[in-house]
Amino acid sequence: MLGFILKRLGLALLVALTVSFISFSLLYLSGDPATAIAGESANAQDVQAIRELYGFDRPMLVQYFDWLWNALRFDFGQSYYFKLPVADLIADRLGVTMRLGLAAISFALIVAIPLGVVAAMRPNSLIDKLALFLSVAGQAMPSFWFALVLISVFSIKLGLVPASGSTSWRHFILPTVVLGYYAMPAIMRLTRAGMLEVLSSDYIRTARAKGASEGRVMFRHALRNAIIPVVSLAAVQMGFMLGGSIVVESIFALHGAGFLAWESISRNDLPTVQALILVFSMFYIVFTLLADIVNAWLDPRMRAA
Amino acid sequence: MSEPILKVRDLRLDIPVPAGTLHAVRGIDFDVAPGETLCIVGESGSGKSLTSLAVMGLLGSAIRRSAAELSFDGIDLQKASRRQMRALRGNRMAMIFQEPMTSLNPAYTIGDQLAEALRLHRPISKGDALKRAADLLRLVGITAAESRLRQFPHQLSGGLRQRVMIAMALICEPDLLIADEPTTALDVTIQAQILRLLVDLREKLGMALILITHDLGVVGRVADKVAVMYAGELVETGPAEQIFRNPAHPYTRGLLDCIPVPGRITRGQRLGTIPGIVPSLIGRQAGCIFRDRCPEAIPACTGDIPLRELARGHRLRCIHPQGRRIAEEISA
After folding, report:
1. In terms of residue numbers, what domain contains A41?
2. How far is A192 from chain B (nearest CA, A)?
3. Of B138, B185, B123, B181, whose CA–CA distance to B157 is shortest?
């Protein structure tokens, strides 16, 4: 198991290095950064001065390693727009996004997995059809629209929860539901499909032949095997929620990292964009690594891989 | 011979399908006594496996079970609650399956799965259960039992996995063991070992054994009683030596002609085959189910044919007195 974890960790580091190089190259893919910083009214001399000040005149690889070395110490340079260290900006915003992401994925898992199990236990029953309806609706409904509906009902009409801001846990209820509901259908369908497949397998018949109770068959014998693909999916969705919750963050005025990314892209604030891409990618890498470890714990056959 | 532990009378299994009702098993009778081996023989789809699953109460909810009598040690299995059935399964009646490769849960160690089988029915600590599991592994001929307990199913060969399945079935010392084609998925040398093991254990533990197989070679070596099934019906049943020495039903004779026997078959001689295919079992069946493939068939075979006693314990479902056409019938 330890060997497996070390191997996966090594792989994750290689992926991280590749991603860091790509996000660094963004600076050059979007034109001459010195011109961008100097602004429209600058003359050639100013541009040259800025180029030397920021070190853009050095070879690209030197710049990359310089940037990487700084990034390793959480120094991502200054934001062009805010004129503040990028690391402080991100640290400031990441808390909101992390809280929202964790709450949303927990919500999705807690609702979707039991629903998937029940649907698989009674395929084509009323509850299975209801679960299917919920998941189709979740997949088809745009989250901005669902968010507005929830706000108009629960905040404006009923006045139960605040509609915007991020000062208390109650501010996170609606965004969690919207973001979690978006992730739920895939988890539910995958759990259902996995359970249906596992329930028809020979070792489930063996468990029943041993005299195991139905609950024991479902949870100890079936779910443990059926949940494996769900773990991988949830990891990807978790990464996606941290990086891609821009819509939900802007509707509920949660000033998180997703919102910062959107702001920085529209302002051409390249150091911030670079750093955010790196941070979001690191989340993906960490969650995938965690999913691999959980799966190896669940399924001993994966430990050899 | 002692009182039978399992009595089955007129067992019927019906499966509703879009085209009507599939009468998968029709009117099966058999008994097994402690220390006795009953072999149920028949080709694929003859209802042998369904019959054994019906005894264990492991049929899917889509299959309807009915019987005049279905009792295990005096317990009416048709009236038993789910809880009562669970208390019997794995405890007093156990089953092993055809597919050792997929019959063990890949997520748990051998030790976990063996201990679970014991702890479901006995109040015993995990540590003690593992000790007993190791004893069972030794009983079924597995060496280095303690280290096997820590292994996962994918680390074992098919033969070893089937031994583990047998150990798991025997861990509560059942009164009845049903083995559904336990050697079919294994290679020939392992087949003989597993079979030997099952018979030895039956003698050692004094349990009743139902061995389901399509291999008559197996039957000849181990059976006390034989029940021959064809397309969901019992066509012939009786003591093993009687069936082998004096097979009466044309289907049984056809099956026996399919296997090479040293001394009876000469080198280069073709083995027998049974022409034709098994009929569809959807809708009501009338007459002899084998008549379309039977070399002895006459027009009267379309009538009702009950199972009748040919000799003591030897019963036959065939219109011909000895299972063969006699001269008058041919000329008639």
Report:
1. 2-72
2. 19
3. B185
